[in-house]
Amino acid sequence: DELTSPFGSNPPAKTSHTSQKSKKAKELCKHSGDQMIIDAGQKHFGAVVCNSCGMIYTAASPEDEAQHIQHHERFLEGLRYVGWKKERVVAEFWDGKIVLILPNDPKYAVKKAEDVREIVDNELGFKQVSLRCPAKTKIYLFVSNEKMIVGCLVAESIKQAFRVLSEPGAVPSPGRDALQHHRAWCCSTEPQPAVCGVSRIWVFGPRRGKGIARRMVDAVRSTFMYGCYLSTDEIAFSDPMPDGKLFATKYCQTPNFLVYNFLYNN
Question: What share of the chain is helix, strand, coil (3-state, %, to 5)?
Fold first, then answer.
């Protein structure tokens, strides 16, 4: 009975709108007696994941938000790219370029690569995993037109790899988690020759889905060995996680791509 005609000139009373809000608040309180944060109409509340820096914090909590701001600024500062005169650009695109950094490059370039790799390791959960041979490692950075590092690929020299085996009857059921099908994988015990190992590959969250990872692997295949373009049978991926397995399968156009540097091999 509080509804009015859309053609009427009398606006609905404010008291009715307020009473509706109070009723809704009471219903929420009944259903969530253990709620610790008051919903006062703010846009976000509770646990929030920052799409840029990946930090999980509690919105509407001044302490958490202050910590998030500090972490966010440090994260973005680590990804800023000032550049230098003798940078090694191996590929250029409409939305950025790929810069290659070698172990014997100037200290400022190596330091920047190490800072970015630390961010990547934290994002991928490789905090305690060191490089196999730093002296033979090549780091590829995808730099956007806004002077931000939005992609990183760490490549290293290897001699052998193992082919992932297809899972028998691997057809996910309708009620099954889509990623569950890609979590477990096994590989052959027969090694085969390989040249380049993709140790880590990472893309900045807001820039994912734009082909940056694919373009970085393309750059690795064309520049890792001078005067040689590597085939997908000459590159291997280091113990891929679910997202990495999906990417490698799509990039190599087969679920039987090569892997290395996993527990069995160690």
Answer: 35, 25, 45
Over 60: is that where the pLDDT of 41 sits?
Answer: no
Tell me whether residue 211 is in a domain. Answer: yes
Question: Does residue 95 share a domain with residue 73?
Answer: no
DSSP H helical ranges for the chain:
14-31, 62-79, 107-124, 180-183, 212-223, 242-252
From residue 41, give the alpha-carbon distance in Å to each of 25, 37, 44, 146, 241.
11, 11, 9, 35, 39
| Euclidean distance between CA atoms 180 and 136, whole angstroms | 35
pLDDT in tens, 223-237: 999 999 999 999 999
- What is 197-208 written as a DSSP string? EEEEEEE-GGGT
Residue 203 lies in a domain: yes
Q: Do both 117 and 140 map to the same domain?
A: yes
129 in the same domain as 65: no
Residues 246, 224: contact at Cβ < 8 Å?
no
Measured distance CA(83)–CA(142) in Å, rounded: 12
Read off the DSSP letter of residue 86: T
How far apart (Å, rounded) are the C-alpha atoms in residues 251 and 58?
A: 37
| pTM for the whole structure | 0.70
User: Are 242 and 183 a contacting pair, CB within 8 Å?
Assistant: yes
Which one of 36, 56, 79 terminates a domain? 79
Contact by Cβ (8 Å): 104, 86: no
CATH number at residue 219: 3.40.630.30
Residue 196 belongs to what domain range? Answer: 89-166+186-260
pLDDT of residue 202: 93
